[in-house]
Write a structure and sequence with these properties.
alpha+beta; two-stranded antiparallel ribbon; 2 helices; 47 residues; 49% helix
């Protein structure tokens, strides 16, 4: 499993989320970890 970040011409990146995370079920602990990490990134970069 991997996540790909692609940089556009304006210096912004697009995030490709692996299908296994979007199409299937994942353990509750994994869901919690992903959600809290994404919240941290959103806060850190003011997104």
């Amino acid at each position: 499993m991997y996540i790909t970040l692609r940089r556009d011409e304006d210096g912004m990146a697009k995030l490709d989320i692996p299908r296994v995370l979007t199409e299937g079920k994942i353990p509750e602990n994994a869901k919690y970890e992903l959600e809290t990490h994404m919240a941290y990134i959103i806060k850190k970069y003011g997104l």
